[in-house]
Design a protein that fits this description.
The protein is mainly alpha-helical. Helices cover 91% and strands 0% of the residues. It is built from 1 helix and no strands. The chain is rod-shaped and about 65 Å long. The N and C termini lie far apart (64 Å).
Length: 45
Amino acid sequence: MKKDEVIELLKEQIKELRDDNNRLLDQIDDLIKEVSSLKEALLQK
């Protein structure tokens, strides 16, 4: 495999990992909002 091919492969892997990371961060944000909402509901009882 040529150096340029390895670089392109690594760039693609980095892009996929960043996309995965962004999806996970979005899920974390959603979970934080849900936990906050549940906590607020419990405190109002």
